[in-house]
Amino acid sequence: MGQLLDPLLIIGLALNFVALGVSRIRGVINAVAAQGMLLGILALFVHPGVRLRGILLVGVMILIKGFVIPKLLIHAMREADVQHEVNPAISPITSLLLGAMGTGLALVYSYTLPLAEEHQHLLLVPASLATCWTGFLVLTTRKKAIMQVLGYLILENGVFLFGLLLLEAMPFLVEVGALLDLFTGVFIMAIIVHHISREFASTSTEHLSELRD
Amino acid sequence: MVYLLVLFPLLMAVLTYALPSERLRPWLLPAGALVHLILVGSILNQAENAPSVSGLGGWLLLDPLGKLVLGFLCLLFALCSLSVPGYLAQHKERSNRVFCANLFLIQAMMTLVTMSYHLGLMWVAMEATTLASAPLIYFNQSARSLEATWKYLLIGSVGIALALLGSFFLAYAMLKAGRGSTLRFDELIREAPYLSSAWLKSAFILLFIGYGTKIGLAPMHTWKPDAYGEAPGVVGAILAGSVTSCAFLAILRVYQICNAGTDASFAREFMVFIGLFSMAIAAVFMAQQRDIKRLLAYSSVEHMGILILGVGIGGLAAYGSLLHMINNGLTKGALFLSAENIQNSYGSKLTGQVRGALRRVPISGVLFLAGFLAITGSPPFGPFISEFTIAKAAANEGQFWACGLFLLALAAVFVGMGATVLSVVQGEPPAETPATPYRERVGTCGPILLVMSLVLLLGLFIPSPLESLLREAAASFEVKR
Amino acid sequence: MGRPMVWNTFHLVVTFVLPPLLLGVINRTKAVFAGRVGPPLLQPYYDLIKLFQKGSIFSTTTSWVFWAGPIAGLVTASIAALMVPMGHALAPISFDGDLIVVVYLLGLGRFFTAAAALDTGSPFEGMGAVRELSFSCLAEPAIFLGMLVLAKLSGSTQLSTMLGASLGGHWGTAGTSLAMVLLSWFLVLLVENSRIPFDDPNTHLELTMIHEVMVLDHSGPAFGLILYGASLKLFVFASLLVRLVCPWVALNSWLGWPAFLVGSVAVAVVIGVVESVMARLRMPQVPVLLVAASLLSGFGLILLVR
Fold first, then answer.
1. Quick one: C99 exposed, middle or buried, by C-beta within 10 A (0-12, 13-18, 19+)?
2. B481 within some domain
């Protein structure tokens, strides 16, 4: 079980780079959805002895992250009549290189954090920190509102990746609460994207720069 | 009993949402707030280990710190809610259903934050306040408030996500040390010395940055001017007074854990630095500020910096910080409400169009001026006492650089803010000011008068129950020598 | 490992006979996917024979560089093919550090092709040369990082040892790294041989070409040499991939050679499939994919070193 974990984490990291490099928004949505579903599958691998509660959580997570949220975003895109290009503020190659640099730093930093015995050789902590960094990068360097939401989703994926280490020990309440907040947050963000498009006839947040000092 | 404190505002929120009458709805707010205040007041007198102040298997607990923040929250909410009917009466063109219901929802979630004795539960409640307050900022549905809401939601959510990661770090540190896998504060504090310091430090930094985003410290403060600037005055008052206090509570709890751990001196130095940095940023941006509400937002950034600075210095300054939390919250309430009145009267909030408030809206103008004097630390108002305590404690602890920079920043803020405020209140109203339906009435000015008199009271005399509660709370994160 | 002289001769024969068949297999696969019958598998041989029977036309504006291009391409690809181990344990030419020589021999061939293109003075060829060279620059780290992974695993810098039988054992322990190197090298194969998604070999629009436009002005035997040299280059890369996936062919030459031949044809089929299901990338996106290929190899290396 543990041997299959590393390749899956590599796929998760690869999805980070896909999100950084592709030029169509639908591509990024698919990458983020795939990452969400991967997270659910990973949960089953990290804790093989999981009971019904864990399986239920995994199922809900796959459903929400893999299907519901992407459908919501695509619906918002269609309503807002968004153009399908990403239009980042920095070129895709710079994004890829910054993402690679961040992943490298995450690897180095996670060496300084002492891990428990059973998690010693896992890529989990570096993968989680690298995903957080990728999410932050997408959030700050993309101008379209939908891309910023996707960056936030990648950041949340990174946080949950770390949370997988605590799946058995962590109380159910917080996991569900966190998932619920994520859903509500994205729901509200989708509504706001709709309002943005209605107000400005575009969802580029370049228009959201009137308030300044 | 402790469940009732959260369930009651939730119930009121549902009731408010369901009530069809637009005219009656605003009046539910002061009514519900007062009842909530009475409920809270009856609980505050209980001892710490009384059964009625804990619940959910120890996940909910009202310790002195929690009691302090909770009592202050409910007081501020009650006072602000008194001005809601008056405000909504002037904005009848929009439905106030979501507005009123969400105000109760925020109150419920903030109550939950103060009562949470579990790191995860506190996180959930903070996230809920972020989500509940977003529609409130968007109340007047203009393009600018949309931009403000978007930035608020995005930056706030990123901060909350980082705070969640920090909470996970702490939980993992507990797991690794084999000390059980709980996130309850008392257990975290007890086990802190045995946790690996690398995890503890990383967790503290993440949690501080995450909750610091909510509180509006520099450099995570960029959402504040926009959000406070575009939100209605009542919302600004509640955000600046209550929500920031809740986030401050969260930071304090995190600091408690770090303090109980190996060595928290790095945390204190970090907090002193960020506190002074926030004050400096605020001072810079307050100069030449043309928008009165954005001015207040930067003032909020400055005072959050003061709060963090006080905690970082420790000792008596921590007591001063807690007192300042109350003073600042009340004064901000008064400032935001009076600024809202001025804006409603002039139809604008820019200093180009707003002049001579003392003539056009005398009561609100005087209160605005008084609020300015209070917030910049003039005696005999409350903030003077708390800021003086912090400065004195800094000098006592030997932190002369911090003390000096603190006083310098205060002076810079006084000058910068004063220029704007004085130009707003003095002089003659411009001839082209439009006639607005706003009138100075009991509904619009009464609550502000109440709040300012409380601020004045706290400057002259601190009631002894409050004093003892403050001391108990400050003692809970006493610096280990 | 058997009688080296026999196997080396067989290696030579395969090297000079097989490559055009790979081109035929690719075209046939694409035809099958498209529902057509397609050209016969031996069509490239017929094309070469036809070309060698024609006369050459050299433009008066070109110099010796123009006909040095095809010749250099053929020679470098042949020598490189002699240094890559195929169906048996040792390649005919094998020494320490030959991995660098192989890559840069191919680079030398590429240099002369580009020089020949620039020699014509035509803007189309110049455009193609620029694109080809810049894409190859980006692909270079991918090859070398992959080579580093293999060198680290096998502890030697001889291609024959790096891709030797011991690699089979390493697939078990460092499988993830090797899989990443495999994927990255496949992308390098596609870019170095101008296949989709980097370049469309079937396009007739000069502005969209990369490799095709560089050889636009060659005719007759010179063009035949270019086609043949290109197929040799494809064969070299395909051999690297086959040996990466099936290193156990080095164990027994009698079984290894047939397996290797089947593997090469399989690689050609995979290329054909990729060409059929994908469209060509927009030009600005090609560098992104190449950087991603380099990052893949890089991370394979990091995983190994961790």
1. buried
2. no
